Fold this sequence. Notes:
This protein has helices at residues 27-40, 63-75, 100-105, 118-128, 148-157, 211-217, 225-231, 248-260, 287-295; strands spanning 12-16, 44-47, 81-84, 111-113, 132-134, 163-165, 169-170, 189-190, 194-196, 202-210, 237-242, 267-273, 302-306, 317-319, 322-328, 331-337. By secondary structure, it is α/β, with parallel strands linked by helices. The strands form three sheets. An eight-stranded mixed β-sheet has the order 6-16-15-10-11-12-13-9. Helix 1 links the parallel strand 1 and strand 2 (44-47). The radius of gyration is 19 Å and the shape is globular. The protein starts with 11 loop residues before the first strand and ends with a strand.
Amino acid sequence: MKYPKFLKENGTIGFVAPSFGCVMEPYHTLFQNALKRFKSWGYQTHLGPNVYADCGIGISNTPELCAKELMEAYADTNSDILISCGGGELMCEILSFMDFEKLKMQEAKWYLGYSDNTNFTFLSTTLMDTAALYGPCASEFGQEPLHPAMENAFAVLKGEKFSFESYDMWEINQIKDENHPLATYHLTEASVPKTYQYQSPVEGRLVGGCMDCLANLQGTRFDQVKQFAERYKDDGIIWFLESCDLNVMSIRRCLWSMKEAGWFEHVKAFLIGRPACYGQEMMGMDQYLAVTGALAEFDVPIIMDLDIGHLPPQIPMMSGAYAKIAVENGKFKIDYELK
């Protein structure tokens, strides 16, 4: 596994928009404040051509131009790391114009983003054997006051922090909107990991992302998950998964599909983020049965309701890294090793 160089003091942060850009509110105001914050921390910023674009469908620009922006930003020397402006809907369409073999030959560069950005963070790991960060997008760094989760995600990019534990509270209903664009997280719910088949700490190679995106990659030419799992079978695979638009039935169907596609070979554990449909029940199916009903047969730990994904705050998940996980005293803990 390749690990990119970490961001140095006074380095340059590049911003790209392979999914949505920072055009509509509250994201535009948030992004402007984030840029001010990064500069106040002593960093330079470099904006890609699509950062303020809004002429695409489900993404900032045409798939061709979004792919061009990302390919060029990854290869050029104008930036030391890349942070995605946001999530979106159709980042998958840029993959048709990406050259992952060419990217694999470039010097590795950290990429941070989540949700629709799974289309790059996941493929960076499985196709390029290059670690990437599944975590907050650029605009979230503009909130006031800044939640510690944001500082922690940035600490990873600087190579300063590799151990995390779950936060005390999480947000189920945000107060951030057009009239309150800089509002920080509205934390009202206690964060308590829910374990299933868990007995002791587990370690293995980390990979995963948003199931909404992962489901679309199955069976395409970008699906080399079984080969990835085989390369790292001696480590074993720890999957981290979360969802955005899926209801509980869709989650169950997605996990069944991934299982039947052979994606879970050599699995050591499953880490499941709180779904955006948190609390939903359909025909007796809730978010827990949706997961355990599909994955219990692997007889490995399943840890749910974690700080991963769409219901913040987020623990930055280092896709591709070797990870040690545990649940102790009501806290989920994860440690990364760059090996």
